[in-house]
Amino acid sequence: MRQHTHKLETVAKKSNVPISVKIKQGTSIVTEIINIAKSSRTDLVVLGSHGRTGVKRMILGSVANGVVQKSKCPVLIVK
Q1: CA atoms of 9 and 21, how far apart (whole Å)
Q2: According to the lineage, what is the superkingdom (predicted)?
Q3: What is the 3-state secondary structure (H, E, C) of 17-48?
């Protein structure tokens, strides 16, 4: 996990894009993302999407969809 976040931070800094990476543990990923966005007064939440459809989406749920539905700030979904 840290290797991936370090790579992301490096790319963002090279492009002069401010970035803040948070690693949290909790029971609901959506709730954790929403809480961090609120407490840090986030301007934009950027999430990746696996594009699951059908039964897989119904069983696994959708973090991206949950964040879009509950977020008070804009959310950018990258596929």
Answers
A1: 8
A2: Archaea
A3: CCCCCCCCCCCCHHHHHHHHHHHCCCCCEEEE
The span from the CA of 59 to the CA of 51, in Å, is 14
pTM of the model: 0.72
Domain 2-78 bears CATH identifier 2.30.30.210: no
Cα 62 vs. chain centroid, distance in angstroms?
12
Radius of gyration of the chain (CA): 14
Length of the chain: 79
Answer for the pair 41, 71: CB distance below 8 angstroms, yes or no.
no
What is the sign of the dihedral through the CA atoms of 55, 61, 63 and 67? positive
